[in-house]
Specification:
By secondary structure, the chain is an alpha+beta fold. The chain contains 11 helices and 14 strands.
Length: about 325
């Protein structure tokens, strides 16, 4: 896959800029890229991605500062991602030939090429809407992979027939290594978490959105039925860390519209500051949704203060379970 992205990107770079570049698989990351331009030679340390999500930009920025000069090569980058990369002056090249590069007097910027289609990972049931619900539980309770499948299905609130398909999907992608018929070892759970967040954002989360509401009182005075409704996102992050004053409000719930109006004085408002999503897991135990979901929503929302708070939550609540 990486070779295909490089091949496409270098061909497109030649078409859009006339630059003939050479890629070599060596160096601290995925390789190096070399080319000559106006009598000068340039060499870049390269990281290759299929695509990039908001929560991954922080890692790319670390690569940028620790492997200068650095170049990100991706099959496809979404407009908001490219804008944030440019704001941070992180060079990138898309497989369609779009490029942003500032280095030693060289400035290249092309953003006119049509995005390439990304092939979806077909057949892997670990990253479907149902699979993501199972993974949400397994990322919090890694030993649960050894439970009887019927019990795991009950805990994750999915049909029993989905469990072996999710396990097979995890084995196919290398996140789960079978030792024998009943015992597994996890691999790269941090990478699995990152992938879960990316897939959650596009596959599951859009299906959960219920409605927007307006707050009629201070959010801190609202007392939810913790088994049915809980704070997510920024309010949950503030409750967990006391480090973030919420500007956007997120609620996950099993209650319907009338319950939310009657019980918490939330008023339906398409421009309201409260986004309400369906609670997709079986048991909730506190004022907030599980920290893993708080972390995911903060990373997806983006912004410096959210990412700083997300890192605190990761180190305090999540890291030990991975």
């Amino acid at each position: 896959m990486e070779q295909e992205i490089i091949h496409k990107a270098l061909e497109a770079l030649k078409q859009t800029t006339g630059i003939q570049a050479i890629f070599k698989e060596k160096g601290p990351l995925d390789g190096i890229l070399e080319f000559g331009f106006n009598g000068a030679n340039y060499v870049f340390t390269v990281e290759i991605k299929q695509e990039l999500r908001t929560h991954q930009i922080q890692q790319i920025e670390k690569y940028f500062h620790s492997n200068e000069p650095f170049l990100l090569i991706a099959n496809r980058l979404f407009p908001k991602i490219k804008e944030e990369l440019r704001q941070r002056e992180i060079p990138y090249l898309e497989a369609n030939g779009n490029i942003f590069l500032k280095n030693d007097g060289l400035f290249l910027f092309v953003d006119t090429q049509k995005p390439l289609d990304i092939e979806k990972n077909k057949g892997n049931r670990a990253f479907t809407k149902t699979g993501l619900k199972v993974l949400f539980y397994l990322l919090q309770h890694k030993e649960a992979i050894h439970l009887p499948q019927r019990e795991l299905a009950d805990l994750t609130h999915v049909a029993l027939g989905n469990i072996p398909q999710v396990i097979d999907g995890l084995k196919e992608t290398g996140y789960l290594i079978p030792l024998n018929n009943k015992t597994y070892v996890w691999e790269n759970r941090k990478e699995l978490l990152d992938r879960w967040i990316a897939e959650y954002a596009t596959v599951l989360r859009p299906k959960l959105l219920k409605e927007k509401y307006a707050l009629k009182e201070n959010w801190e005075t609202i007392v939810f039925d913790k088994n049915k409704t809980a704070w997510g996102g920024e309010p949950a992050a503030d409750l967990l860390t006391n480090h973030l004053r919420p500007e956007k409000f997120l609620i996950y719930t099993k209650e319907n519209r009338m319950d939310l109006i009657k019980n918490y004085k939330l008023m339906p408002d398409k421009n309201g500051e409260v986004e309400v999503l369906e609670m997709f897991w079986k048991i909730n135990e506190g004022k907030t949704v599980p920290p893993l979901l708080v972390y995911a929503d903060l990373m997806l929302e983006g912004g410096k203060r959210n990412k700083e708070t997300a890192e605190k939550i990761y180190h305090e609540y999540i890291q030990t379970n991975l």
